[in-house]
Hints:
The protein starts with 5 loop residues before the first helix and ends in a 29-residue tail after the last helix. It has one domain (about 5-385). Strands 2, 3, 4, 5, 6, 7, 9 and 12 form an 8-stranded mixed sheet that branches. Strands 1-8 form a two-stranded parallel sheet. The relative contact order is 0.21. It is an alpha/beta fold. It has helices at about 5-15, 50-65, 70-85, 95-100, 105-110, 140-145, 155, 175-180, 195-200, 220-225, 240-245, 265-270, 295-310, 355-385; strands spanning about 30-35, 115-120, 130-135, 160-165, 185-190, 205, 235-240, 255, 275-280, 290, 315, 335-340. Helix content is about 35%, strand content about 15%. The protein is globular.
Amino acid sequence: MQSGLGLSGWALCLLQPFPHKISTAPGGRPRWHIPYPASQPQAVASPDQPTGEVHGPFFSLLGVFLLFTSLWWLSALYAVWLFLDWDTPCQGGRRSQWMRNWVPWKQLRDYFPIKLIKTAELPSSRNCVLVTHPHGILSIGVFCNFCAEVTGSSQQFPRLQFSLAILNSLFYLPVYRDYVMSYGTRLKLTVEGQEVALEQRFCILAGRGAGDRGTCSVNHQSLDFILSQPQLGQAVLILVGGALEALHAVPGEHRLTLWNRKCFVRLALRHGASLVPVYSFGENDIFRVKVFAPDSWQRLFQVTIKKLLSFSPCIFWGRGLFSAKSWGLVPLARPITTVVGRPIPVPQCPQPTEEQVDHYHTLYTKVLEQLFEEHRRAVASRLLLASPSSSPGLTPVPLPACPPPPAPDPSA
């Protein structure tokens, strides 16, 4: 989510019904595009990060303020709790089924509306890495489908638990850390160089045994702790596009930042977890976004801020609170359909080679493109009802040939 007002926008959209229309590229056909971000930084931002940038600091300042009032003991007690509970995000988090079933999330689901489509069984005998596209501005499809119990994900995948991994820094914010953990979110961290920062910021992990986990950290400690549990069926969702992808969340276009994002493949290989493509049609349509030219100073500013603070400031707008014809920060009511694809079996390789990573990355990209082409037409029947977007479509980028899988090491 690329705005500090993200959660506020969610709350505002609960108050306003709006006709369910959606914009698209010329000709009513969404375009598929996987750019080559060869020279761009690989760090990505967490979907829940910007929300914490506003609400998290508020609770932190509130705790400091209470120290100078007669309620100082509340801050003191919470400081003790924070000390005792500090490692919880790195050990699976703490999930609250009550908050995941809040009635406002059902209103949020019906506002757009949002629905989940299952195309294949996800075996509970294996762990899964669900890679979600696109990031969008709010990543609201991921939240409603996997962090709230409103679209039937627990019924369609009864033996899997879904949890969202967010930035490490959000768990340093008093009170807010407990709030985000209740929805099954987890922390993220950097791994090694640029791809380290990538692996830390985009994973969604599964909960502990009986489902008492919530948010946790996405560093190596957290990832290994979750995916190394004796109980199988752990589900990891990854918003691999991150902040760079959010900058191109143009209605009617599908631009994915994927080509140089390979840490999710390494994660799956290390733990032998199946790769599962997940695509949210309509995620890019709930806001209008100003896209700057790659060589402009505005774009340079966005990239610089992203490198420093792990999120990209972007200009976006929706509708007003009281009128659909005005502009504001309320998301547009556009249908969001999240499709879960078939799992790709991945062998367990504690130290995967570059050839293995490249092979399964290319295989995953092809399966993702197939999923997109198979289901875009079902969504296009609704896309054609809306006025075309003024943004030009993009031509597809050819994919490389899939190399043969590496031969097993006889000495292993």
